[in-house]
């Protein structure tokens, strides 16, 4: 196993990491703003090809030298063609109302090999992985380049399965967006972040980053006291001017109509937490467990809804602390997350 060359904390003045948020939400502007404020910003490499990711890296490097890149690990689902066909047909009236057609239920590996090659050829400070753990060979290749490696886990068992890493992102069930589990199934144990930090700390000696519904300085102080070296927050940054979230998405976070969150497969075929809206309520129970196939089916609808400003058909990913998300610059949001014991 390769030697750990430096600590993730060496890259931050403050123990706050901006979660990678795919789909254009967590882009270069947000990553750079958080890093310049003393935290660690992340680019979301999911749903992008290698060329687009390289362009975003170039953009964020113009503003800061400290940042991370997140990748989705491919695999995990055996799609049922009949179930996908039925779900696509179910969404046709919804799509027609928006003036689009449902997408094709494509699989694919999210340009995995090309993005790995690009990040090894032009190393970045940190690479994190979600939806699984890459091979030991991939992990060690990054570490040999001086890139710190972070793997997302949602259970102590997943933590024990990681062969090597510089940190584990320990994601509790409160987190907004996709559950970062290896298997992608809802029947896995759903640990809250505080419980999970404690359990994983006893399962491994790899440093831990806590994630999941962390919305205040008191939240951050608590997970640090339980043994985490840093806290990762995503929802807290969604309403910042640097966030790439569409205006209707930002408004929904403060709208009393969207007061609750739930975990659904409606938008992507993979469990993810978001604000409960009409699309989630009507279609979630019928969505097959098929990722990224369902993601591609619903993508044209979600894009059209964003253009129209229709939050009832958008994937409004948000964690349980979403009502505390403030319409402030990212640097001020980070300041509010600094650990303050109650």
Overall description:
- Pfam families: NMO (PF03060).
- GO terms for molecular function: nitronate monooxygenase activity; nucleotide binding.
- α1 runs parallel beside α2 (50-61).
- The termini are far apart.
- The chain contains 13 helices and eleven strands.
- It has 342 residues and is of the alpha/beta class.
- The chain has an eight-stranded parallel sheet with strand order 1-9-8-6-5-4-3-2. Strands 7-11-10 form a three-stranded antiparallel sheet, with no helix packed on it.
- 34% of the residues lie in helices and 13% in strands.
The CATH topology assignment of the largest domain is TIM Barrel
Q: What is the number of helices?
A: 13
Number of strands: 11
Fraction of residues in β-strands: 5-15%
Which CATH class of the largest domain applies here?
Alpha Beta
The level of helicity is: 25-40%
User: Biggest β-sheet, characterized?
Assistant: 8 strands, parallel
CATH superfamily of the largest domain: Aldolase class I
Please state the overall shape, judged from the principal axes of the Cα atoms.
globular
